[in-house]
Amino acid sequence: MRSALGGPRLLLRRLREISAEPVSAQARLDKIVVQIAANMVAEVCSVYVLRADQRLELYATEGLNREAVHLTTMHAGEGLVGQIAKSAEPLALSEAQEHPSFSYKPETGEDAYHSFLGVPILRGGNTLGVLVVQNKVRRVYSEEEIEALQTTAMLLAELIASGELQAIEDPRDLALYRPASLRGAPMAEGVGLGHVLLHEPRVVIKQLVAEDMPSELARLEHAIDAMRQSIDELVAHSDRIAAGEPRDVLETVRMVAYDRGWVRRLREAVMTGLTAEAAVERVQNDARARMQRQTDPYLRDRLHDLDDIANRLLHQLTGQSYVADRDSVPENAIIVARNMGPAALLDYDPKRLRGLVLEEGGPTSHVAIVARALGVATVGLVAGLIDIVETGDPIIVDGTTGEVHVRPQPDVQSAYAEKARLRARRQEQYAKLRDVPAVTKDGVEIGLHMNAGLAIDMPHLRETGANSIGLFRTELQFMLAPRFPRMDEQYRFYKAVLDAAPDKPITFRTLDIGSDKILPYMAKIEEENPALGWRAIRIGLDRPGLLRMQLRAMLKAGAHRNLRIMFPMIANVAEFDAAKAIALRELDHITHHRYPPPTRLELGAMVEVPSLLWEIDLIAERADFLSVGSNDLVQYMYAADRDNTRVSKRYDNLSRPVLRALERIVTAGARHNAPVTLCGEMGGRPLEALALLGIGYRSLSMAASAIGPVKSMILSLNLEETQMYLASLLASDDGSASVREQLRDYAIARGVPL
User: Fold this and answer.
1) Is 237 a catalytic site residue?
2) What pTM was estimated for this model as a whole?
3) CA 308 to chain centre
4) Is 366 a catalytic residue?
């Protein structure tokens, strides 16, 4: 390689020295291009920076006309420089003017130069600009020279990203700082305005230039060995790990970790003069840039595997933590993460959180349940977000629409600030309804109950004026615990929950695990279709010791109180009879051992498996009450996985088949004097709640945040008229898949708030 100053390592060190000099940003960049030109034995060195309007602007040059700086611009894709920015790949030409993409800018005076070498300035796979060297003679640039210029571009990327060029132009003009709007799946309602806090913060590489190449190579090899060993251990114990890292995913990650080509590129990057950390960043930058531009979805998905490996290796090299420092969470923080569990979210101070955005995780995930309990606006399934944000970036999260705005424009920020104020005023109005009975305009009282599952939920019972806890999800306690809770721990937990609501009924649901609800300390059962597999009451009946322990803890905690317990996912009457028999034996046990029993014990069944619809009268005769789990019932009725966005939105729960099935359940309950409550997400949406009231439901259980809007709808509703309208809709067959739009028009015409 030709070099006047001794190669890329000395060049990088010199550039770092220039970066630290107390001069203006323009003077610093001018010195940098002179240094690069001298090192590369080139007559020209130029830096182009990508602006927010997607134009490349000449920021500095050595060799071209200086008057062209900040004057010459081109679109991404225009000319050779634009092609490099668009493709994110280097381009080396011995005769640039013969290339079909060549575009001559007369103000630069570059017509005298023939040879051309340009590389993208990349960070996080995103193009920030282009670095170019040119020569008058026709020459072929070697692989070593291309590699050296790419390494140099990495340092320029850090200069741009760190804000060291901000004095030249308004930083908002740079592409790195441009606004971005993305859309995902709404998970928890609300509007959050704040600043990004990365749950798994990026490793900060403080030193790019290696002082001792052999020692850097040794550090790299040691870290690779340690990283591989940690992945091997994960795979070896994959039968004990939580959902989210199943064995097949880990096997793919391990395959990447042992890829010889990837390791070879890391070693070559170190040999150019980079530290081991900078080499990992450099190789991953190139891979990310290439894969982000792939149209093949499989290849794009592999980017997650590469990111995972690179992050693991960087953490091995630096010893930095995988998670943010939760003791120093700033005000108005909005957490951004690939994915996270409910326990991780609870580690943060909820008073400082304004939102949560996940690249993965859907509306029915357990972190969504916790987010709703905390009142944190949450959006999931936001692809590619982590690649374009930094900790501290302004961000807006709309948990109602699923919109996420990064570095928003002032008008967008103002609009959402007003939206947040309007929401706050609505919440104040709902709070005023707390003690107002939920009675329709024609005098029918509706029972509004609250779903819960954590101790932090209990204060909402008083704040919302809910009649009771209609569903207490006991599995969340198990999911957050480091090991299976012992019976005395379960007893204390249930007693604390009951004591928090001494004058309100609480309906406990027995352990509903399996499918997507995996306990981290239990062996994961590999199943072809977990949603239809070993879960909920099926586990309880097959492992009666677990069910007996939980029932005994509940019965002891419910001493001298009315106690309500329901069994999930009952598929036939025989399963309910078996579960009820276990509960009654446990009641006999605690009485025999002189523990005070509950004053009254009510045992109910959840109706969420369609087969129970054909035994609905039998179950209504046997159970003290019924509770409809609409989430699973609709999923099973349509054979559509509710977590699969390709099919989950294909079927509407306001379709005639669903409403007719739900009507059948509530009618059977009335025939046999078995109270029926609907406790799925459906009951917490005003339009769906209106439909449920119209087909006969008088008891709904929902998230605390939904009680105000649903009560407001009820107070404006003429129920008798609504029932007649629903009956006519269900009796007709106009060929439509859903009655949603007819119902919405009906409500709007009558001034019913939705």
Assistant:
1) no
2) 0.64
3) 16
4) yes
